[in-house]
Amino acid sequence: MRRASSSLVPVGFFLAILSLSSCATQPSPTAQRHHFDIDFAAIGGRTSEINHWVDLNGDCSVAGLYSVQIVAPPAHGQAQVTKGQFFPRYGRLDARAACATIRRDGLALRYTPSPGYAGADHLAISVISPRGGYWTTDVHILVTPVAEPGSAAPQSHS
Description:
By secondary structure, the protein is mostly beta strands. It has one domain (12-144): Immunoglobulin-like. The protein contains no helices and nine strands. The strands form three sheets. It has a four-stranded mixed sheet with strand order 1-9-8-5, with no helix packed on it. Strand 8 and strand 9 form a beta hairpin.
């Protein structure tokens, strides 16, 4: 059973699961481990961001970088974890929501389907937050082909 689904926008629960320890590259020995399954829609021939991670302190400074490892690469494309500047995403009741107007250091997970590929793909990641939280995620990807310019849109057969 899958717990959540997504289109081209990352799912909300996929955001940071945070505890109160200091910067970590290994999960805290007491960290509760979680597992998520998400669905993700990608468009053939295009790179899509599945998610990005930014962790901030209450004063909007970066708390540290996540550790994101691809533990099972996709069979029909490429996945990459890249450093960059991203807008943080916090719920409006979180004091750090005020920090969301400035890009901060973080990591992104991106997926690019193989040329001409359309269909199902899958990848798995493990994530460790700067505060020691740990989780794994299976990403179930559906790659939709892009119609060539000037061609008819694909027909749906029901």
